[in-house]
Amino acid sequence: MDAIESIKDIDGNEYKTVKIGNQIWIAENLRVTKFNNGDNLNDIIKIESFCGPFHDKTNNLINSPCACYCNYNFDSNLDKIYGKLYNPDVVYDSRNIAPLGWRIPNNSDWKELIQYISNVTNKSSIIFAKEKLKSKEFWLSENLQAIDEFGFNGVPGGWWLSNDKKFTDLGSNGYFWSKTLTGADYDFENRMEINSENVTSVGGNYSWVSIRCVKNN
After folding, report:
1. Which residues, listed in sequence order, are joined to residue 207 by a DSSP beta bridge?
2. pLDDT digits (tens, 9 = 90+) for 102-153
3. Number of folded domains in the chain?
4. Assuming Cys at both sites, which of 64, 130, 169, 180 could form a disulfide with 158, CB separation 3.0 to 4.6 Å?
5. Where do the DSSP E strands lie in the chain?
6. 58-107 tens-digit pLDDT
């Protein structure tokens, strides 16, 4: 684990970064509320209606009016620890939410991270990787297998299920966007899940989850 200099997003939020293998990751969840061109994201609490499920498969949304964020339980006090939760329109919008020089990781980026951890620890199972990626704090007692050996600081920020209009899993699961499209009609964005059992890749276009970024090569 090698700590790298901190970076700032367009809002001025400062983030720690860490080098893991050949990758450099932001070691915190994004808290930004603007795209890199200065356009504001919608705060879900300030708009009257939800835009509906994500249907674009081009991976190149342009000026989506439904690019939204929220805080878990609409509680801004949780922002510093867990960051914000973002819907799929944010991930695929061409205006780009990642700080300049950074990107939202795709499945290959996530797989490289997990493979590096497996190689270093001589453990091939992704079940073992989860405790290496989990933050040392903020997990519920049954999920305390958390040593954060590589400084990724994977916090259990939970998610917002927009179809059910509910927040869930704070303290027990961390979900992070991947920019890889999976192809199914209602299951074509991907997210990485760190939970009490493993690290896995799952989909679901009603999800609002956290964003981590990896530095461009």
Report:
1. 161
2. 999 988 898 898 888 877 766 555 555 677 888 888 888 655 667 788 999 9
3. 1
4. 169
5. 2-8, 14-20, 23-26, 42-43, 68-70, 85-86, 102-103, 157-161, 166-170, 174-178, 190-194, 199-203, 207-208, 214-215
6. 545 556 667 889 999 999 999 999 999 998 888 888 899 999 999 999 88
- pTM, 2 dp: 0.85
**Dist CA 139 CA 77 (whole Å):** 17
Contacts 24+ apart (CB under 8 A), 99-103: 99/7, 99/8, 99/9, 99/10, 99/15, 99/26, 99/32, 99/36, 99/213, 100/36, 101/215, 101/216, 102/7, 102/26, 102/213, 102/214, 102/215, 102/216, 103/179, 103/213, 103/214, 103/215, 103/216
Residue 86, beta-bridge partner list: 69, 209
C-alpha span between 2 and 153 (Å, rounded) = 13
Yes or no: say if 113 and 25 are a contact pair by the CB < 8 Å rule.
Answer: yes
Angle, helices 107-121 vs 126-133, to 10°: value is 90
Amino acid letter at 48?
Answer: E
- Residues 11 and 30: their CA atoms lie apart, in Å, by 11
C-beta of residue 100 within 8 angstroms of C-beta of residue 26: no
Q: Which residues pair with 25 in a beta bridge?
A: 18, 214
